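Please fill in the sequence for the structure shown.

STRUCTURE ENCODING:
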């Protein structure tokens, strides 16, 4: 494993370095999660895709650090950590809450004057231009109900009081970030924007998902998949094969970068 942005516990984790990879996929986690959310993906991706998972302050290996107070802080930390890695075409991926800093990281990479990101890929969240702010004042029992409803944790884990005593403050800190976030428009991205969402996900809406088109009206695609908020659970291998094919075609500048909508 390699970590970037500092010693073990830094901003980026690369568990399977792939010097010959055609594209690097930088992955931002959902609310309450750590970089480890993506660890199984690193081994499942083909050798031409290198995964770099983001560890937010106060999460996972950075437990005990002060939580980030803005998505700008996350954006700046991720882009600085990427500067320490070898240059490579970079796609930015965010699941659920992670889609917000993913957007701002992609914008920052596009502004820096170097190669633009090759893709922005998000899943299971309405576009920040239309999404309502999250509530961060829910009592603990309602937060647990939220995790149960979205399928974020197994019921056995949700019943583990010591575990939840550690998890809920992290989740609440992330919800506070979302509650205070206000979308600011910017120029459309030059890179493709791809959105994935489960057809049974009650946390998203058709209008909200379609609103991601604003970030690149010329090259946008929305893919609906069977399942809920974590629609890829249990079918990670075919989902990642689909993502990898899409990303590498985009990175190589081939036409028809996205696979066909199912």
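FILLED IN BY: designer on duty
SEQUENCE:
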């Amino acid at each position: 494993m390699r970590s970037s942005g500092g010693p073990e516990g830094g901003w980026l984790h690369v568990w399977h370095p792939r010097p010959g990879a055609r594209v690097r996929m930088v992955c931002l986690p959902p609310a309450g999660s750590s970089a480890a959310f993506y660890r199984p993906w690193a081994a499942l991706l083909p050798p031409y895709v290198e995964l770099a998972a983001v560890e937010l302050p106060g999460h996972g290996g950075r437990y005990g650090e002060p939580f980030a107070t803005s998505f700008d802080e996350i954006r700046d930390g991720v882009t600085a950590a990427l500067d320490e890695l070898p240059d490579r075409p970079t796609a930015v991926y965010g699941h659920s809450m992670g889609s917000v800093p993913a957007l701002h990281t992609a914008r920052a990479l596009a502004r820096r004057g170097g190669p633009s990101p090759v893709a922005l890929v998000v899943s299971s969240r309405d576009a920040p231009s239309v999404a309502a702010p999250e509530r961060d004042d829910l009592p603990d029992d309602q937060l647990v109900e939220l995790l149960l409803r979205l399928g974020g944790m197994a019921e056995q884990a949700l019943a583990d009081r010591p575990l939840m005593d550690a998890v809920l403050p992290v989740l609440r800190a992330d919800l506070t970030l979302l509650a205070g976030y206000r979308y600011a428009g910017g120029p459309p991205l030059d890179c493709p924007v791809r959105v994935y969402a489960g057809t049974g996900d009650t946390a998203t809406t058709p209008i909200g998902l379609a609103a991601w088109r604003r970030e690149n009206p010329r090259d946008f695609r929305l893919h609906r998949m069977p399942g809920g908020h974590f629609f890829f659970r249990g079918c990670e291998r075919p989902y990642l094969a689909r993502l990898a094919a899409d990303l590498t075609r985009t990175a190589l500048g081939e036409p028809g970068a996205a696979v066909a909508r199912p």
